[in-house]
Amino acid sequence: MKKIRILIADDHALMRLGLKSMISLQRDMEVVGEAENGQEAIDLALALAPDVIILDLMMPKVNGAAATKAICDARPDANVILLTSYGDAAELGSVIANGAAGVLMKDAPTESLLTAIRSVMSGGMALTAEFVAPCEAALPALTPRQTRILESVALGYTNKDIAQQLGITEIGVKKHLRLVFAKLGVANRTEAVALALKRQILME
What we know:
Structural class: alpha/beta
């Protein structure tokens, strides 16, 4: 079984140790690197190409929001999950817009982070309840392209199909969908389509 390769970035050694210990107990995950500041997180994310990067939002040298942008700009396929102790709407909106695949509270249950890691690996979004409303409030409405992509999802098209229709990459489709998920406050394609139909963003 191919394991999910994870990079942990947090300036607190005890936090890194706790996360590493928890992840190491999972049969489908492994920690491939640790960073103690934002710049080191960027460097290791590019050098090691992990599947998932767990970033503390508040870190020295480069904060989590800026590190997320740098990583996702260089590696559009990166799956970044931010950990934070608070939920400022503007900052949460910016990290999602910068490409983050999830935002979780630092004191969230262990299972929440493990579920988030597996969710983002399958193309989903990982937002704990505390961040759904702030993220929705901080992000603008769906763009025409995002609406079109969501319509294609509702019709059963895959990311590969949609990429061919629009002349963009599958990674581009995935990034658009994650922004759609964040704007709608949902975790996956099924929930996005159901809510869009309910709100009449899409017509049945």
